[in-house]
Design goal:
The protein has 266 residues and is an all-alpha fold. 70% of the residues lie in helices and 0% in strands. The protein has twelve helices and no strands. The chain starts with 5 loop residues before the first helix and ends in an 11-residue tail after the last helix. The model has no long low-confidence stretch (mean pLDDT 94). This is DUF1295 domain-containing protein. It comes from Streptomyces poriferorum. It holds the Pfam family DUF1295.
């Protein structure tokens, strides 16, 4: 039977929040030095990896060591892969158009506005969304079916992200595809294989704590919030508003699933 150390979990919340804040403040300093705030997108994945590491250290002696290690490793692998991909994709480019448009309308100092509206907000989201990873360290009892199911779903998500990102990068690297809509490979099955991958990753990490109803209920906000961001917030919805007027996008949208993968319509 699994138990859960609520007191130890509660004591670890503040240090994990401090770790997320430290990553974002350090990234803000880098952004000021470089003169671009797109670096915060790299810090998103790094922040999760750092919080997972801090939680792993703090939970030593509290929860099952196998579950502690599983949650920390899965989170770090996902976060560092994402950070590396975004860093490589943005190398040599200027400011992200999203941040450029936002900061052009900023009241007062645009850098301080970016600190409040981008860096600190993302730091808070990293802490909140990582709650299942933090909770996993304080859950006793051996790793069981829920955790292995979560790891399997995480693997599906990482596969969709990695393969989708690789396919899109190869497509964009071919000059013959300039101005065209990517509709091949995984992108023929879903318009957003990378966002669907994120969705699977975070529901998978949540399943790791589902062995105990209390921690599962307390951390359900994490995958629900991530799902909202991916589907209706800054992910799919925002990207498709930008792509709506591109030639061929209407036809692509008509034949391709908006999120959950399925064979394309004729």
């Amino acid at each position: 039977m699994s138990g859960f150390s609520w007191a130890a979990f509660a004591q670890g919340l503040a240090p994990c929040a401090g770790a997320a804040l430290a990553v974002m403040l350090a990234t803000f300093a880098v952004g000021l030095h470089k003169g671009v705030h797109r670096v915060v997108d790299v810090a998103w994945g790094i922040g999760f990896a750092v919080v997972a590491l801090v939680s792993y250290v703090l939970s030593a002696g509290e929860g099952d060591d196998g579950r502690r290690l599983l949650a920390a490793v899965l989170t770090a692998v996902w976060g560092l892969r994402l950070a590396g991909h975004i860093a490589h994709r943005g190398r040599g480019h200027g400011e992200d158009p999203r941040y450029e448009a936002m900061l052009a309308k900023a009241p007062g100092n645009p850098d301080l506005y970016a600190l409040r509206k981008v860096y600190l907000l993302q730091g808070a989201l990293v802490w909140l969304i990582s709650l299942p990873v933090q909770a996993a360290g304080y859950l006793t009892g051996p790793v069981g079916g829920w955790a292995w199911a979560g790891a399997a779903l995480w693997a599906v998500g990482l596969l969709f992200e990695g393969v989708g990102d690789h396919q899109l990068a190869r497509f964009k690297a071919d000059p013959a595809n300039r101005g065209k809509i990517m509709d091949r490979g995984l992108w023929a099955w879903t318009r957003h294989p990378n966002y669907f991958g994120d969705f699977c990753v975070w529901w998978g990490l949540f399943l790791i704590v589902c062995q105990a109803p209390g921690p599962a209920a307390a951390t359900l906000v994490s995958p629900v919030l991530m799902s909202f961001l991916l589907i209706g917030g800054s992910g799919k919805a925002l990207l498709e508003r930008h792509m709506a007027e591109r030639p061929g996008f209407a036809a692509y949208r008509a034949r391709t699933s908006g999120f959950l993968p399925r064979p394309p319509r004729r």
